[in-house]
Specification:
Number of helices: 4
Radius of gyration: 16 Å
Strand content: under 5%
Largest sheet: 2 strands, antiparallel
Number of strands: 2
Order of helices and strands: EHHEHH
Structural class: mainly alpha
Distance between the termini: 43 Å
Length: about 110
């Protein structure tokens, strides 16, 4: 399926390269649009993603995850043609291969 981005409702101008990058990142985050209602969810998923994945930067084609987080408020109205993923589904997908399970001995102490 082709990635379709919709930025007509965004008030700030977004360069073409940034549109594609932002669209791909929203697909990774499992959130199809940035609205006032979804803003907190986007920010939370961005923080979690950056906390889990940075040590595996080479798997992401060298994408620098240490660069500053996007100013999400400036992108309100931006959307892509993907479906919303629930938090648990999204976290399971993102953490697969990155997060190691807690050993039973340690889990008992928690």
């Amino acid at each position: 399926m082709a990635l379709v981005v919709n930025f007509e409702k965004v008030k700030t101008e977004i360069p073409e390269r940034e549109q594609l990058r932002l669209g791909l990142y929203l697909s990774v985050l499992g959130v199809p649009s940035i609205t006032k209602d979804s803003l907190d969810e986007v920010k939370m998923r961005d923080r979690v993603f950056r906390a889990i994945v940075p040590q595996h930067r080479d798997r992401l084609g060298g994408w620098d995850l240490n660069e500053p987080t996007a100013d999400w408020e400036a992108y309100i109205g931006f959307s892509v043609n993907s479906l919303f993923e629930t938090r648990s589904k999204w976290f399971n997908r993102i953490s697969k291969g990155y997060v190691k399970p807690i050993p039973a001995k340690i889990a008992k102490r928690l």
